[in-house]
Specification:
By secondary structure, the chain is α/β, with parallel strands linked by helices. It has helices at residues 54-62, 70-76, 81-98, 102-105, 125-134, 150-160, 176-188, 241-244, 247-259, 273-282, 293-296; strands at 2-17, 22-35, 38-44, 118-120, 140-144, 165-169, 191-195, 215-217, 236-239, 263-266, 288-289, 307-308, 311-312. Helix 5 (125-134) runs parallel beside helix 6 (150-160) and helix 9 packs parallel to helix 10 (273-282).
């Protein structure tokens, strides 16, 4: 077994901003695992919010001795970006060696396209209204918020895009007081989901205040071990492979989330089509799918995912799986 790690950069079509950062380039790590002349690959996005850098994640991967399988990998590394890229590369490798698709190996039904949200990043109300108007033809918009002055922004987005469903993502940027003030207006403006309104670790108030709009755990939910702490506070769980540490745990988390009665959202970091491809298997039938990162890029992998009126389509074998 040979493991190779490279850093790849993809230019964004526009500046992407959330409450804690902005960027013009998507920096990802690509992992290739070669065995018996066959190569599988996967992608991860190191995330500073979880104390990850491209250098630290690369070091995690390069410190592993080759020879592990997917089950062994779950024991060798914790959830996070490093394990995600390795896990997805191993799935791709297994599929190529078996001459089957990953969904067949995982015992899943054949995947189909899913409608994905399109993200309107944080900006001035005027800029967000203009951005929303450009995307007003889409069925679902995700609006990045997370400041004490978000009401004007949300009103501007709805004015620019009167018809789409809207979900909002505060990225831990609100206090309980700000959320309580905004909640009635979210209903009025047709918001159907609020993602991570309060900081992870400081979200107990969600169990005590009214939640007129379903609330989704993102930074508060990583893998199955984090599920017990969500009870009474959240209605939906956002599954991201860079948090779960790969497709293996993501599929297990999806089963556990549904068994606990939560809705499923499947999200992503800002990466290429290679990162979205395995997530599409988790996204089948999800309440909310948010795998629009390739639409935010000015450049993508050589064989990108297909996006059209039906949504984002599953990958072809030329890309992954």
């Amino acid at each position: 077994m040979k493991i190779e790690v490279s850093t790849d950069s993809f230019r964004l079509a526009e500046v992407f901003a959330i409450s804690r950062e902005s960027r013009t380039v998507a920096r990802v790590l690509t992992v290739r695992i070669t065995q018996d002349g066959i190569t599988g690959w996967g992608e991860c996005v190191p995330y500073a919010r979880y104390d990850e850098t491209p250098e630290s994640v690369t070091a995690e991967i390069e410190a592993l001795a080759p020879g592990f399988d997917r089950a062994g990998l779950q024991r060798l590394l914790p959830g996070g970006a490093a394990r995600n890229a390795l896990d997805c590369a191993l799935w791709d490798l297994e599929a190529k060696r078996a001459g089957k698709r990953v969904w067949q190996l995982a015992g899943l039904d054949a995947p189909g396209p899913e409608i994905t949200a399109f993200t309107v990043s944080l900006g001035t109300p005027e800029n967000m209204r203009a951005a929303a108007a450009k995307q007003a033809h889409r069925p679902l918009l995700k609006v990045k918020l997370g400041t004490p002055d978000d009401m004007e922004r949300l009103e501007a987005v709805r004015a620019g895009a009167p018809n789409p469903r809207i979900i909002v993502d505060a990225n831990e940027g609100w206090s309980a007081e700000v959320y309580a003030d905004l909640a009635p207006h979210l209903l009025r403006l047709g918001v159907s989901l609020v993602e991570q309104p309060l900081p992870a670790g400081a979200d107990d108030m969600l169990a005590e205040i009214a939640r007129p709009v379903p609330v989704c755990a993102d930074e508060s939910a990583h893998d199955r071990a984090t599920l017990p702490d969500l009870k009474g506070k959240y209605d939906v769980v956002n599954i991201k492979l860079d948090k779960t540490g790969g497709l293996t745990e993501a599929l297990a988390l999806r089963r556990a989330v549904l068994a606990e009665g939560y809705g499923v959202m499947v999200g992503c970091m800002v990466g290429s089509s290679l990162a979205m491809a395995p997530a599409m298997l988790v996204a089948q039938g999800a309440l909310v799918v948010d795998l629009d990162a390739p639409l935010l890029l000015a450049e993508d992998r050589q064989v990108p995912l297909k996006f059209d009126a039906a949504g984002v389509h599953p990958s072809t074998p030329d890309l992954w799986g």
